[in-house]
């Protein structure tokens, strides 16, 4: 058993899905499946119960998940400690990001932890559109970018999937879609929408999903703020499509106007993805300062 096998196992256990886990690891699904089968053979039994839609942990898998987290955390802590001993007393880390990282990644907290560990590293942060960020990494003007995955690979830039989460329809509690499951895009096309501006990555994802299905939709309100988007949907001025985590946070907010959600049928469900990109060729390792930041990110957010 090695660290790579444990990383693959944890990804499948957390995603509950081999395809999403492969996307997160940036590997082919067949290679991931083969690694998991080899690990199961080595440990003498199945770690997952597989179905056509998802996977679930067996009792043995649940035990291994707890130990795998402990081992991987220890390995990352050791690497971070060695990095601190070896240097990074001075330097600069330039980070670019899209607007919609929260609640998936707590970037301010991660930056705080990195500053605590490497106080001599100057940190620069700016927000921009997804396409521009990876170009900035390729051109050496940014060291790291948090953004949407590119439609085509960007030369000399390595990306790793951090988030893969389905969108849900947000509406008032008395709306016809409230609490519905397996809603189709064709059914959703009947509704009026509140949406983000056309230059937002999430808006582009939704537009592309409806276009692929050959469907048009009507947008009644267009905003540049996620909080306003949800408030307009809560008022019944149109439905909004947002990632599950954002919808859950709104539903759990007792001080906000209540909302309900509708789940989209799995094979039509748009998936909101966020990657971290850094400059490297092929399997080449990132720079020392970038690797140190990624180690802090993993320990803080549990991603990668």
Please explain how this structure is put together.
With 304 residues, the protein is of the alpha/beta class. The protein contains 11 helices and 11 strands. The protein has helices at residues 3-15, 18-25, 29-43, 59-86, 107-117, 130-138, 185-188, 201-212, 226-234, 244-252, 288-301, and strands spanning 48-50, 55-57, 91-97, 121-127, 144-147, 157-171, 192-196, 218-223, 240-243, 260-263, 271-279. Strands 3, 4, 5, 6, 9, 10 and 11 form a 7-stranded mixed beta sheet that branches. Strands 1-2 form a two-stranded antiparallel sheet. A hairpin with a 4-residue loop joins strand 1 (48-50) and strand 2. Helix 1 packs across helix 2 (18-25), helix 1 (3-15) crosses helix 4 (59-86) and helix 4 (59-86) runs antiparallel to helix 11. 32% of the residues are buried. The model has no long low-confidence stretch (mean pLDDT 88).
